[in-house]
Design brief:
three-stranded antiparallel β-sheet
């Protein structure tokens, strides 16, 4: 293995432990001094559901669950709404089944709003990571190790 890559990989387990050791927070509890960049985790009833990464942790958290967040901003909520409505087949073409079309369906919109409320009630943890390569690897590592069901690294 290339030594540069190995150096990045060596830190992942320690960072995951730091993420899990972070005191869980809830909506409205984000500290003023939280880091800007890092990896975050949403947990519900002891089940780790979603790992993400951002260079604007505070803002990204809000885009996941704030009431006014759009379907383009709240990807995790959109996934939860898809599951709740049985509309799990993603399409990347305009028309029926597209993101925009789903947001015209009142049943889906209700599920999307409920998903954002659900996310606001979840535990939120984060760990600082400013190195972009390590941040990407850490997101994937955490999702695999924690078996988060709502992470998808497939190409579309």
């Amino acid at each position: 293995m290339d030594h540069r890559f190995a150096t990045l990989v060596e830190t992942l387990a320690t960072k995951l432990q730091a993420l899990l050791a972070c005191a869980p927070l809830r909506y409205g509890e984000l500290p003023c001094d939280m880091p800007t960049s890092g990896v975050y985790l949403f947990t519900e009833n002891g089940h780790h559901l979603y790992v993400g990464r951002s260079n604007v942790l505070r803002g990204r958290y809000g885009r996941h669950c704030r009431p006014g967040a759009t379907h383009k901003q709240a990807a995790f909520a959109f996934q939860l709404a898809r599951k709740a409505t049985g509309r799990t087949e993603a399409t990347y073409k305009a028309g029926d089944g597209s993101r925009d079309a789903l947001m015209l369906d009142p049943v889906f919109v209700t599920a999307f709003q409920a998903a954002k409320e659900r996310i606001r009630a979840m535990e939120y943890r984060y760990v600082e990571e400013t190195d972009q390569n390590r941040q990407a690897l850490l997101e994937i590592y955490c999702a695999i190790v924690l078996e988060t069901p709502h992470n998808d690294f497939g190409t579309h």
